[in-house]
Amino acid sequence: MAKRGGFPGGGMPGNMNNLMKQAQKMQRQMEEASKALEEEELTATAGGGAVEVTVSGKKEITKIKLSEEVVDPDDIEMLEDLIMAAVNEALRQMDEKAQSSMAKITGGMGGGFPF
Description:
By secondary structure, the protein is of the alpha+beta class. Helix content is 49%, strand content 16%. β1 and β2 (51-56) form a beta hairpin. α1 packs antiparallel against α2 (76-106).
């Protein structure tokens, strides 16, 4: 009787089995890192510290602090610009931190797998 294709015993070959285990381990590590990042907070400033914005790892603003000298009723537009700049910088830094954290786990693969 001729043998049909496939693997002896019907299981995966050792290399494929190891690859699957590595992929599962990487997925667990990425989930743990994502959860840890959600608990992080990052603060950025604008206007030489006149505006301070804190964001969470969930990309939610958790705190805005304004120094008194930046609150000028005759120049609300400048205050709006400073708040926007601080928020954008805090979000950019959180994205950078998240990418760096994931790159440590994936070895720079960008979260993908080599197959």
